[in-house]
Amino acid sequence: MLNRIAELGAAGLGVLQGLGRGLLLLPAILAGTLAMLARPRLLIRQLYSVGVMTLIIIAVSGTFVGMVLSLQGHYILSQFSAEEALGVMVAASLVRELGPVVTALLFAGRAGSALTAEIGLMKATEQLSGLEMMAVNPIHRVLTPRFWAGFISLPLLAAVFSALGVLGGWFVGVGLLGVDDGAYWTQMTYKIDFQGDILNGVIKSVVFGFVCTWIALYQGYDATPTSEGVGQATTRTVVQSSLVVLGLDFILTALMFGE
Q1: What are phi and psi of 80, to 5 degrees?
Q2: Are 217 and 32 in contact (CB under 8 A)?
Q3: How far apart are CA 177 and CA 170, in angstroms?
Q4: In angstroms, what CA-CA distances link 181 with 57, 165, 168, 176, 244?
Q5: Tens-digit pLDDT profile for residues 7-55
Q6: How sure is the predictor about 258, in pLDDT bands with cuts at 50, 70 and 90?
Q7: Are the C-beta atoms of 194 and 90 separated by less than 8 Å?
Q8: Which of 147, 128, 125, 127 is nearest to 138 (CA)?
Q9: CA dihedral 5, 10, 14, 20 (to 10 degrees)
């Protein structure tokens, strides 16, 4: 019994130590922002790697999620003769919840894991140490551009996800199920509020972009410099990012829409 308590205590201390190292790494990353702005090509290159290369999976997923929402929503709304509200249901679901959350989960699985593996391999092959030997700060040169690329990319990817989801819902609802085209768009534009719906979704996606990128960079920078350590760090990135996103989504939703 005492051994189990000691193991739990050691695990708890390990979590707190990891959180502390991550919190210490964050200001070091932000401190390199001005140096990064002097070399914008570093940021542009990472925006392509982190954002553009993730666009395909986001676009396809957003379209099919919107189509599924339209199918399910039409089945439910038709029981109350409220098919005209299909556009409102699809748009509200995407903008408020599914757009930011699903995009963040896909971002963690694709871009986050790639960032962790890349930085972990750079550490394992002593490339980061080589930068230090050349009097180059590896955090400012390697981590800072990747952090801002992820922070900028995720809200834009979430907007693409939601927009294509609405179009996918329109294709199924209007094109296949016979919902009136004017009612689909009119109800949506009338009921969806910019501040209450769209802005809150943007805030969520910004928070998720910050957290997911931070976790990915920390796990890569703190990874054990072996092939096994890099693999474990990549797994931790996906798991921790997913759990944190879901937890933060509940907290942010309670703050935004709770009475």
Answers
A1: -115, 10
A2: no
A3: 10
A4: 28, 16, 13, 11, 39
A5: 778 777 777 787 788 888 899 999 989 888 888 899 999 999 999 999 9
A6: low
A7: no
A8: 128
A9: 90
Task: Classify residue 175 as exposed, middle or buried by CB count within 10 Å of its CB (0-12, 13-18, 19+).
Answer: exposed
Q: What is the pLDDT of residues 192-236, one digit of tens each?
A: 888 778 898 999 999 999 999 999 999 999 888 888 899 999 999
> Tell me, what's the pLDDT at 153?
95
Give Dmax over CA atoms of the chain in angstroms: 71
Cα-based torsion angle of the residue sequence 195, 30, 212, 116 in order, rounded to the nearest 10 degrees = 160
Token code pair at residue 259: 């009475």
Phi, psi values for residue 247, rounded to 5°? -65, -45
pLDDT score for 66: 94
Closest-CA residue to 101 (of 60, 65, 64, 148): 65
Among the listed residues 186, 214, 211, 193, the one whose alpha carbon sits nearest the alpha carbon of residue 256: 193
Amino acid occupying residue 254: A
How far is CA 147 from each of CA 58, 71, 125, 199, rounded to the nearest angstrom? Answer: 20, 38, 21, 23
* Alpha-carbon span 38 to 46, nearest angstrom: 15
Q: What angle do CA 22, 238, 258 make, to 5 degrees?
A: 80
Both tokens of residue 47? 């925006």
Segment 78-102 shows an average pLDDT of: 88
Stated as kind and residue range, the H or E segment containing 190 is helix 181-191
**Is residue 211 within 8 Å of residue 109, measured between CB atoms?**
no
